[in-house]
Amino acid sequence: MIRWSQRSDRSTIIDNFVTDDDSKISWSSTLKKYLNRGITLQYNTNAVRVSLYRPFTRSVLYFDPHLNEACCQFPYILPTPDTEKENYVIAVAGVGDRKGFGCLISQFIISLDLAFEKTQCFPFYRYDADGSNRQENITDWALTEYRRHYQDDTITKWDIFYYIYGILHHPIYRQRYAANLKRELPRIPYAPDFHVFAQAGKRLAELHLNYEQQPPRATRLGTN
User: Fold this and answer.
1) Range of the domain at 165
2) CB atoms within 10 A of CB 71
């Protein structure tokens, strides 16, 4: 590394220096630029995070903007491990997805191609990059509109969050708005009974978030 740093033709030396073994490190063009500029990285134990690579498939991730080029908004959605204890994210298929609409809740950093393409994430909270200045992502205006529409001042922002999750999983909603869900992000209608969907969405979220703690279901095998 000392001999490399003293050479003037660094771009050529970088290509000779790096390995193509992606199981060790994936040398992107951006990472090569960091090396060429002499940027050094220090190992940070707080950067070792849990991620959701595929539905119900957790993976260990070293989360660092120098090493992860597609961090998107997660530095402000789940900036620290502590925020995983309080923040939930609803992930949906992005515009132009070719695999069909999908939706899943998580408390961890989510892969861009979770189970559907171009995953878009909507958290309950957002933060500054250091984990401070927590703000609710559902606005006071939205809360007022839901309370006004349903004539119910007991509705909370968490109720709205779970209501949305329930709506996004309803088969009639997915069927009726199938064409729209292919070309735009979901729009949430006012259902006749708010609390039915909020309660169903909350229960469904509990199942999806705590799937490892759910009791196994017995299956009766058929007989010939």
Assistant:
1) 74-211
2) 15
